[in-house]
Structures are given as structure tokens and as C-alpha cells.
Amino acid sequence: MSTVNPVNPLLKLALEAGPLAVFFIANSQLDIYRASLAFAVAVVVALIGSWLLERRLPVMPMVSAIFVTVFAGLTWVLHDDTFIKLKPTIVNSLFAAILFGGLFMGKSLLRPLFEQAFDLDAEGWRKLTFRWACFFVALAVLNELVWRNFDTALWVNFKVFGIMPLTIVFTLSQMPLIQRHSVKKADDRT
Predict the structure, then answer these.
(1) CA end-to-end span of the chain, whole Å?
(2) Residue-range domain boundaries for the chain
(3) Coil vs helix vs strand at 116
(4) Span 138-177, pLDDT tens digits
(5) Model-level pTM?
(6) Which residues, at least 6 apart from 2, have a Cβ–Cβ distance to it below 8 Å?
């Protein structure tokens, strides 16, 4: 049986947001190409940190790290920032497709990821999965609108200071659904 070590929430936030901070700072001091490489290195370091602290790799950050590494490498090698700008669109579209696909097959694929945090009834998991899939589509569309219509500096600011707050607000907005569909645990009887 594998156990997950509890991690200080501030440390967990630093591991998740740290690579974005590295990307932002490197872009402001260097250029998008070297910032992309710094981002890839920071993501790998954060994953190693997660592994050392929790003895597991979180699925979504791991998938994102693979894409960051590949797209940062393409950005660097081909000297074309289109690749790093496309990464959020592709990752968010992939997450949306996986979640919608699971729903189509009658499964809520969020459940295995979050069942330790929430105990919801089947309808709650379906609704939450559908909403997250729609949110990922919205993030993909927003990324496309921003990178195609604005300069790189604004896109980097949007990526760092727009997506994270939008995700926090969206997550908090799901709390009423989570509370409505929360399953009360029965008393343990010995």
C-alpha cells in the first residue's frame, strides 16, 4: 500500500507556481528562448521535488512537464516561440478531450485524481468533470486569442498572472457543487 506524505500547502504551491515564476523572471531578464529552457528545467526540478516530498508524481503536472520540456526544446532548437505559445493550448485541449472522452464512455476521470480530496456522488463527479473539461476548453481558446493577437511580453504576463487567478477563481466557484454533491461518510462501527 502506498502512502502519500502530507506536504505543507505553501511548499506545494511553490512547487506548482515556482516554474511559472522562473519563466516570467527569465523572460523579463533574457528572452523567450532562454526563458523557455529555464521553464523546462524548473518544471523538472519541481517534479523531482514533488517526488522527494510525496513519493508520487502528480498526473497533471507530470503531463504538463512533458509538454513543457518538448515544446521548450522545440522553441530553443528551432528558435521559434510559436511552440512554447502553443503548449498551453495543446495541453488544455488534451485535458478537455480526455475528460469529455471519459464522460462519453460513462466515466468521470476526475474522480481518481481527486477522490482523496472530495467524496462526491456520481452526479457530482459527472458535473464537476464536465465543468473542468469546459474550463480547459476556455483556457485553450483564451491562450489562442492572447498569443495570436498580442506581443510576447503580454502573452507571458497573461500566462503567469492570468491563468493562475482564473484557475483559482474557477476552482472556488465549484465549491457549491462540491458541497451539494458531497457524500456524508457513515459512522465507523466496530
Answers:
(1) 23
(2) 1-78, 81-183
(3) coil
(4) 999 999 999 999 999 999 999 889 998 999 999 999 999 9
(5) 0.82
(6) 55, 56
